[in-house]
């Protein structure tokens, strides 16, 4: 009787709204709005149930299956089962959101990235600091060098005559204290720094062979 007296235009508008109706996080609200619109359309059976299944999260329908083993065929039973599954799904979502919030507040790491919600590495994954007796190991980009490459006996010798303010700034920048470039201070042989200032020349190193030859020559000379 109701279908007989329903305005066809109104039924068409309600059908369009039913197709466009979207789930917004509350299954009960979605079903209530859908049933109200359906009073003009009077959909029933598989087509009506498929419309609901497409609109709701896939997990809701999976919960119906897991609980009953099959989807109900009668509309009333289907609506009841979907409503219950929807409430279960939404409680699960709330619980996950609450757990995530707690982890974020505590800075606890997640299991996938190994990082906390604040982006910090787990303690066991943090890189260990490099300990070195070299005074510039934490200040220069290349703290290790081959002994054969050393141009200066110590830092005092390397920095003699170098502007102190420039040295302090280069320490902060992690550059060579002497010239401001990317290498270790004790291997620096630059004649000018990055600002174009003249630098003291490193002392000429004499090899052990040359030293030995020099000693031999002096011994051979007549007294």
UniProtKB/TrEMBL annotation:
Question: What is the recorded name of this protein?
Answer: Uncharacterized protein
Origin species: Podospora australis
Provide ranges: composition bias, Basic and acidic residues.
99-109, 139-149
- Disordered: region residues: 99-149, 191-223
């Amino acid at each position: 009787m109701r279908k007989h007296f329903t305005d066809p235009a109104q039924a068409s508008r309600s059908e369009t709204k039913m197709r466009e109706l979207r789930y917004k996080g509350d299954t009960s609200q979605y079903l209530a709005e859908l049933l109200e619109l359906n009073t003009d359309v009077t959909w029933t059976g598989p087509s009506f149930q498929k419309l609901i299944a497409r609109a709701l999260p896939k997990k809701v329908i999976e919960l119906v299956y897991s609980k009953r083993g099959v989807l109900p065929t009668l509309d009333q039973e289907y609506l009841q089962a979907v409503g219950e599954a929807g409430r279960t799904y939404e409680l699960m979502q709330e619980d996950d959101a609450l757990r995530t919030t707690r982890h974020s507040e505590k800075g606890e790491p997640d299991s996938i990235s190994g990082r906390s919600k604040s982006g910090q590495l787990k303690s066991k994954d943090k890189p260990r600091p490099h300990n070195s007796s070299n005074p510039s190991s934490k200040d220069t980009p290349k703290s290790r060098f081959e002994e054969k490459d050393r141009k200066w006996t110590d830092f005092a010798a390397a920095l003699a005559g170098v502007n102190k303010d420039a040295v302090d700034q280069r320490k902060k920048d992690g550059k060579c204290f002497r010239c401001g470039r990317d290498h270790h201070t004790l291997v620096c042989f630059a004649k000018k720094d990055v600002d174009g200032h003249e630098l003291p020349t490193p002392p000429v190193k004499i090899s052990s062979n040359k030293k030995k030859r020099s000693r031999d020559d002096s011994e051979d000379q007549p007294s």
